[in-house]
Design a protein that fits this description.
- The structure is a single chain.
- The strands form two sheets. Strands 2, 5, 6, 7, 8, 9 and 10 form a seven-stranded mixed β-sheet that branches.
- This protein has two domains: about 200 residues, 2-Layer Sandwich (Chloramphenicol Acetyltransferase), CATH 3.30.559.10; about 40 residues, no CATH class.
- Helix content is about 35%, strand content about 20%.
- The protein is built from nine helices and ten strands.
- The longest helix is centred in the middle third of the chain and has 16 residues.
- The chain is an alpha+beta fold and about 300 residues long.
- It is globular and about 55 Å long.
- Strand 5 and strand 6 form a beta hairpin.
């Protein structure tokens, strides 16, 4: 299991990036994969998993009872669970860039916030850092506060940068983006363009359930370092079979996850999804700091 020391700041060595530490103990198979499959979009693997939300909904209802300072949503719980998962499954926080493997120095979760639920409403990008001390309450406070600020007319660094870049003519944009992609290959993209950009986050989350949409497949991007995109559908009731083989009506949600298969194998991914499902079925553990391990057997 990962621990706080693994996420602490490390002394930068030759070959490391500002946002990642070079993986120096790769086996031969993984070493050659970025040369066989140089693009992230060539290495996508997609998994659609049905998660049991019955206990989570009861937990959220209780937490939002009388006297609650702010509203906690199922999405907040899912975000906290994903943050905890990445902390304890560190290969999920790995990325391939410039045909090299890196362990990301931080855990960052990104998602899109719309100012209003209209066709023409502007989309804003929100990024949430996760540390070993992060709790569900902190996640809720941060999402509610940042989303409210953005909807009321605020902006973030990447938003300011994009609003400036969009004024350039097409010929300049082509040259500019060629230059930026070269910087991206060598890990030299300036903070003004990378900070707050979901393409440089650990996981990009799309809460499509908030607009009554199911969880579709979502592609990865070749630009940046993001290796995982997760889409979350509508929570709905469905008949499922329990471990004894008896049918039950449960509250479930479909989660679609697209991952870069170069960062870990299918066995690691499958076990990680089982652990995520366990977190969602026992949401009370997310009220404690992320770094606390749980007694879970695969």
């Amino acid at each position: 299991m990962a621990n706080e020391a693994k996420h602490a700041a490390k002394k930068r060595k030759w070959g490391d990036r500002r946002d990642g530490t070079l993986v120096r103990d790769l086996d031969g198979v993984h070493h050659i994969m970025p040369y066989l499959f140089p693009k992230r979009t060539d290495s996508e693997v997609y998994i659609n998993e049905k998660m049991d939300m019955t206990a989570l909904l009861k937990f959220v209802e209780k937490k939002n009872g009388e006297g609650a300072e702010f509203k906690t949503t199922p999405f907040h719980v899912i975000v906290a669970a994903v943050g905890k998962l990445l902390y304890h499954r560190p290969l999920l926080n790995r990325f391939v860039a410039g045909r090299r493997y890196y362990d990301r120095n931080k855990i960052t979760l990104a998602f899109v916030v719309r100012r209003q639920f209209t066709d023409t409403s502007e989309e804003m990008l929100l990024e949430l850092p996760v540390t070993g001390e992060t709790t569900l309450e902190e996640v809720s406070r941060r999402i509610v506060g940042d989303a409210t600020e953005l909807k009321e007319g605020g902006d973030n660094n990447i938003g300011d940068a994009l609003n400036m870049v969009k004024k350039f003519p097409r010929w300049f944009m082509r040259l500019f983006m060629t230059f930026v992609r070269c910087l991206d290959f060598f890990g030299k993209v300036p903070r003004s363009l990378s900070d707050g950009d979901p393409n440089f986050s650990s996981v990009l989350l799309a809460n499509l359930g908030s607009i009554k949409c199911d969880a579709p497949y979502h592609h990865l991007n070749n630009y940046g370092t993001n290796s995982i995109v997760a889409t979350i559908g509508v929570i709905h009731k469905e008949q499922i079979y329990n471990e004894e083989g008896h049918p039950e009506i449960k509250d479930v949600v479909d989660v679609g996850v697209t991952m870069d298969e170069r960062i870990a194998d299918g066995f690691y991914f499958a076990r990680s999804l089982k652990l995520l499902n366990y977190y969602l079925m026992h949401p009370e553990i997310l009220e404690r700091p992320v770094k606390e391990e749980v007694d879970y057997e695969y």
